[in-house]
Amino acid sequence: MSKKIIGEKRKEIYEMIKKAKTISLKEIKASTTINYNTIRSAVIGLTNSGLIERIGRGIYKPKSK
């Protein structure tokens, strides 16, 4: 079952996390022009929907199927 991702920036952040395997919020901020608070809220939403998981303080990876 594929979950739907709503929002342009949220999709962009999710694609970055999928490509990088593991990435920090600071790395996402450094490589985009997206506001840090927007990144945080998108990552929280993606984590709650089960698409990504937190592996450390500020470090995330895509969830294994």
Commentary on this structure:
The structure is a single chain. α1 (8-20) crosses α3 (36-48). The mean pLDDT is 89. The longest helix is centred in the first third of the chain and has 13 residues, at 8-20. With 65 residues, the protein is of the alpha+beta class. The protein has one domain: Winged helix-like DNA-binding domain superfamily/Winged helix DNA-binding domain (Arc Repressor Mutant, subunit A, Orthogonal Bundle). The protein has a three-stranded antiparallel beta sheet with strand order 1-3-2. The chain starts with 7 loop residues before the first helix and ends with a strand. The protein contains three helices and three strands, in the order αβααββ.
Number of beta-strand segments: 3
When the domains are counted, the total is 1
Secondary structural class: alpha+beta
Tell me the β content.
Answer: 15-25%
| H/E series | HEHHEE
Secondary structure tally, helices: 3
Overall shape: it is: globular
**What's the assembly state of these chains?**
single chain
Instruction: Profile the largest sheet.
Output: 3 strands, antiparallel
CATH topology (level 3) name:
Arc Repressor Mutant, subunit A
Q: Determine and state the CATH class.
A: Mainly Alpha
| Low-pLDDT windows of residues | none
- What is the CATH-assigned architecture? Orthogonal Bundle
Helix amount: 40-55%
Average pLDDT, to the nearest integer? 89
